[in-house]
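Module 6 notes. Inverse folding takes a fixed backbone as the condition and produces residue identities as the prediction. Think of it as a translation problem where the source language is geometry and the target language is the twenty amino acids. Below is one complete input and output pair. Work through it position by position during the lab.
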């Protein structure tokens, strides 16, 4: 690292980059402990029912197998707050893929062979995994995720819609989506003299520690959970998952350290996913384009195990002025794996539907899609009436249009053809709330002139170490290479998880405060520092979680150009461009990486990613990367990420809004809108696969022939 101060705003390279590319970085199951054993799960083959018998005799006969755990012999656990963690505690099978046994062996190969030899007999019951918008058992929950009210209504939305001169009434479907981080969910656990150590691929080890201590009924100070390096999570590692509970149970049962990496094919059933969302969006507007009525109603599902409701209608409460509105959620409880957090939960599917409907409204009005959004911009949040702390959506749209070359765009669908390829362009807005949680941190000055900053943050590949080092260096007025950062250990000062685009804002606030306090103390300190140095502690409780008088959100604008092959049905994205207003950009290098990564994830949602619940077996048909298609290099075109300068005094000392999720929010809608502009057909179900494209083009051709 350079001797120059690593001030905020500098494109500092990642501190851990060399360790990762040289293999020195160790992940959750790469700790080679003495006596390490390996575990492999056995999952239920029925979608609903009970386990009648577990015959482990053949598995125990496999050379190297040490134990087979099931509900008949597994350690008894205290009831967890999250019912998905109550594994091997009873004979129920709430969905296909529920853990019914765990094999522990000397080697990974023996554990896998043993798992295949476990014979489980089931009492299978009828199951139901199909979600339809008119299910009579769907209900309005008290809350959607994040504590949002499931239903919000202002004025007379139905009456205002009926009386609007221009109306759009349409439906969209987003299929199940899966997180699939590069490193699967994995844990290593070791018991020693009543103490538990765990290495876990987690977005927050403080919560894992609390959960394990409660479930295994040991004091929290007897549990240490480490996550020094995490190979991605995208929300699925935001809360403890069954892998760490199973590894801990196996280590307790065998008296040996146990490593467990969940097989990738099992992740959709065990660690959450983005549930199907069915959207009905109605927009009523005047001839001038001003929205009079906005109705966004979402139907989704959750499991029988736990209620989890994707808050997909919530963005409609923030985006556009609408004097009359209803944003509502309904949920049906099915025999499916429990949905959970996935990058930008709520905003990602919700903004796909809303921004697609905005494009349809622009077409109905004969109005430019950007101008429609500008006309409906607002200075106060429609749902709460609070003023925005800052809102530069229009600036993002204007700057994006300039960079993308929107001016002169022919609005007619199907106007750009080169042979069998039609080309179109589209735009969509994006938003994501500013979230921040209380955190603690310490900063210590050492006699050699260096500093040590400690906080139980987690770096899930976002560059948290690097940016926190910059926060500390700026507050200390010290060169970056004089500041050492320790993160990823539950014995460090407690901190919230890396999720909700809140990590840097939450941890950075505490780090900033600890460093400022240390500077003040050093300014009046007399003499040489003691050998252990001088340390200051900060806790942002009561401030970071204080209610704000402002609505705080990041905003952005996405632009896409697509080419559609009318013979093969293939859709290719030629260009993606995003412009964001996300407060102070603390490190342009890591920020651009996050924005671009989000847009690539949105491209996958638009074109390749999608899953299917098989009604006969109750299982996801696309369970691994051979069937669930994430974008590869050949799918990713020129991707540009830009931002505007935004100084928002109502956030936190570092001034950032969070950037990890907004990049994905509007991308799929921009691609879908560009597809419509290319061919003149609107596909309202993702992904835009060749079979759907060809079917739509065929129907379009038949309609033209009839006309």
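Target side of the pair, the amino acids:
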């Amino acid at each position: 690292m350079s001797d120059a101060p690593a001030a905020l705003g500098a494109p500092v390279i990642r501190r851990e980059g060399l360790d990762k590319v040289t293999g020195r970085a160790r992940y959750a199951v790469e700790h080679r402990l003495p006596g390490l054993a390996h575990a492999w799960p056995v999952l239920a083959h029925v979608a609903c029912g009970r386990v009648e018998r577990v015959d482990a005799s053949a598995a125990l006969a496999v050379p190297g197998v040490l134990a087979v755990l099931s509900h008949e012999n597994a350690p008894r656990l205290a009831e967890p707050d999250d019912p998905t963690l109550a594994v091997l505690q009873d004979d129920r099978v709430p969905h296909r893929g529920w853990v019914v046994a765990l094999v522990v062996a000397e080697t990974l190969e023996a554990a896998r062979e043993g798992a295949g030899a476990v014979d489980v007999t089931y009492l299978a019951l009828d199951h139901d995994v199909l979600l339809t918008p008119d299910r009579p058992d769907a209900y309005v929950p008290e809350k959607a995720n994040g504590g949002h009210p499931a239903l919000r209504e202002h004025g007379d939305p139905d009456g205002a819609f009926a009386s609007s001169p221009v109306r759009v009434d349409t439906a969209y479907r987003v299929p199940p989506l899966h997180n699939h981080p590069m490193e699967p969910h994995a844990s290593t656990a070791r018991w020693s003299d009543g103490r538990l150590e765990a290495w876990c691929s987690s977005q927050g080890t403080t919560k894992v520690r609390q959960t394990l201590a409660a479930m295994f009924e040991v004091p929290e100070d007897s549990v240490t959970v480490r996550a020094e390096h995490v190979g991605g999570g995208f929300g699925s590692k935001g809360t403890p998952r069954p892998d760490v509970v199973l590894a801990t149970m196996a280590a307790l049962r065998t008296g040996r350290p146990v490593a467990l990496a969940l097989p990738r094919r099992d992740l959709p059933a065990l660690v959450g996913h983005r549930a199907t969302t069915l959207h009905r969006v109605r927009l009523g507007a005047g001839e001038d384009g001003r929205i009079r009525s906005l109705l966004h109603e979402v139907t989704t599902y959750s499991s029988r195990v736990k209620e989890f409701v994707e808050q997909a209608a919530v963005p409609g409460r923030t985006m556009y002025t609408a004097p009359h509105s209803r944003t509502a959620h309904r949920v049906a409880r099915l025999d499916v794996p429990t949905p959970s957090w996935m990058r930008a939960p709520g905003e990602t599917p919700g903004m796909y539907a809303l921004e697609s409907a905005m494009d349809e409204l622009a077409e109905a009005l004969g109005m430019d899609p950007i101008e429609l959004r500008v006309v409906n911009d607002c200075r106060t949040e429609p749902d709460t009436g609070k003023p925005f702390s800052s809102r530069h959506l229009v600036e993002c749209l204007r700057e994006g249009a300039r960079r993308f070359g929107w001016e002169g765009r022919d609005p007619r669908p199907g106007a750009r053809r080169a042979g069998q390829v039609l080309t179109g362009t589209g735009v969509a807005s994006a938003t994501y709330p500013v979230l921040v949680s209380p955190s603690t941190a310490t900063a210590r000055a050492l006699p050699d002139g260096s500093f040590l900053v400690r906080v139980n943050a987690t770096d899930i590949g976002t560059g948290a170490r690097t940016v926190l080092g910059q926060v500390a260096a700026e507050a200390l007025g010290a060169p970056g290479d004089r500041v050492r950062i320790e993160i990823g250990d539950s014995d460090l000062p407690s901190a919230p998880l890396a999720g909700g685009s809140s990590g840097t804002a939450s941890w950075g606030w505490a780090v900033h405060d600890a460093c400022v306090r240390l500077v003040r103390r050093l300014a009046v300190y007399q003499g040489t520092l003691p050998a252990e140095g001088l340390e200051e502690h900060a806790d942002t409780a009561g401030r970071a979680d204080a209610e704000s008088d402002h609505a705080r959100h990041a905003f952005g604008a996405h632009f896409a150009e697509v080419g559609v092959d009318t013979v093969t049905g293939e859709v290719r994205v030629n260009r993606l461009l995003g412009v964001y207003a996300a407060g102070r950009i603390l490190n342009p290098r890591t920020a651009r990486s996050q924005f671009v990564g989000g847009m690539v994830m949105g491209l996958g949602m638009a074109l390749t990613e999608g899953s299917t619940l098989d009604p006969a077996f109750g299982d996801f048909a696309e369970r691994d990367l051979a069937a669930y298609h994430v974008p590869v290099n050949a799918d990713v075109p020129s991707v540009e990420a830009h931002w505007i300068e935004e100084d928002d005094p109502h956030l936190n000392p570092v001034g950032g809004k969070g950037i990890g999720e907004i990049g994905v929010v509007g991308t799929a809608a921009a691609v879908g809108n560009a597809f419509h502009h290319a061919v003149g057909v609107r596909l309202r179900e993702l992904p835009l696969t060749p079979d759907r494209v060809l079917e739509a083009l065929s129907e379009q051709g038949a309609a033209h022939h009839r006309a």
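Reference fact for the lab report: The mean pLDDT is 96.
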